[in-house]
Amino acid sequence: MSKLLSRSLKKSIIYAGIVLACSIPVYFIIINELWKYEMAEHNIILTEKAAREDSFLIIGTITALTVLFFVFLLAGLVLLNRRISRKLWQPFYDSLARIKNFDLNRQQSVQFDDTDIAEFAELNGHLHKLISGSVSAYNQQKEFADNASHELQTPLAIVQSKLDLLLQSQSLTDEQYHIIEDAHKALTRVGRINKNLLLLTRIDNSQYMEEEQLDLSFLLEKTITLFNQFAEAKQIIIHRDIDQSVAIKANKELLEILINNLLNNAIRHSAADKIIDVKLSSSQLSFTNAGAESLNRDQLFKRFSTASSGTPGTGLGLALVKQIADRYGWSIRYAYEQNKHVFLLNF
After folding, report:
1. Nearest Cα to 216, choosing from 290, 286, 320?
2. Other Cβ atoms closer than 10 A to 324
3. Contact (CB, 8 A) for 276 and 267
């Protein structure tokens, strides 16, 4: 792939080269005819060898001078074209750089520099309109998700408590019990989705501003202990390789959510009777677990996406991990190596 400027310049050079190549035989023919004409007009008689040598000398000299001046002319045109084009296209590259740095999640507006080139001014105007529309739509969507999630909390809790009461009823038949139990499971899933949506919205709205120096090693050990029962139920063993007293500055609640989601994800996508490796160094945290096939990398960190059809979740756990990592400038990466899922968090 070549740049637009290089492409136009390349074609100009090729065209100039063709013109130069075509001009050499034309020079030869014209000068040769002129030479013969002058010789005949002045009755100058030369031997065939001397005439040929003089003719080649004159034609060669003129051709060499033409090529030399042509090269100077071409070099000048190239330099001039580069300088003018760079200045001419500068507004375009400025706009491109601003669009590259644009991040919808940061809610930043994009201001394009004024330009006296009509085409670029029109392009900047349309880009500004497009970005403003996207930011507005994003804000409306986020506000709706925030309000809907908040309003749903109470009715969900009421319905769940009513179902709990019904499940404890002695008069239920087996069929009624199973129907209510299924409804209870579905409602529990909806509750988890609603809770995660609320968390995402609160992170977007910067409601977790408080940060403190945290002992990540301690938090990780504590989380593994809490999840051990869940892992043992699947006969999974969690191996730890944790450096002590690794400190990190973050919001405690968000850091706990990040660790919980990564460990929960490792257990959920691990086969029974397998091992999960958790490693922590001064700059990296990794979770490694066995898996039959790679997760869907393109959908892995997107909201409401399914990383694996075998063990579907709410579709928000890893989106939360990515959101938290982005907030603190950390990187989260997934790899599938030697039949193992590896999640790497660099901080």
Report:
1. 286
2. 25
3. yes
Q: Identity (one letter) of the amino acid at 76?
A: G
In angstroms, the CA 102 to CA 29 distance is 62
Rounded CA gap, 162 and 155, in Å?
Answer: 11
What is the rounded CA–CA span in Å between residue 248 and residue 211? Answer: 10
Q: What is the pLDDT of residue 346?
A: 92
* Residue 80 predicted with pLDDT over 70: yes
Half-sphere exposure of 110 (CA within 13 A, CB side): 24
For residue 260, give the nearest of 181, 195, 205 by alpha carbon: 195
Tokens of 219: 């938090």
CA distance 173 to 93: 71
SS (H, E, C) the chain: CCCHHHHHHHHHHHHHHHHHHHHHHHHHHHHHHHHHHHHHHCCCCCCHHHHHHHHHHHHHHHHHHHHHHHHHHHHHHHHHHHHHHHHHHHHHHHHHHHHHHCCHHHCCCCCCCCCCCHHHHHHHHHHHHHHHHHHHHHHHHHHHHHHHHHHHHHHHHHHHHHHHHHHCCCCCCHHHHHHHHHHHHHHHHHHHHHHHHHHHHHHHCCCCCCCEEEEHHHHHHHHHHHHHHHHHHCCCEEEEEECCCCEEEECHHHHHHHHHHHHHHHHHCCCCCCEEEEEECCCEEEEEEECCCCCCCCCCCCCCCCCCCCCCCCCCHHHHHHHHHHHCCCEEEEEECCCEEEEEEEC
Question: pLDDT, tens digit, for every residue of 190-232?
Answer: 888 888 777 777 777 777 778 889 999 999 999 999 888 888 8
Mean of pLDDT values over 67-86: 82
Alpha-carbon span 224 to 231, nearest angstrom: 9
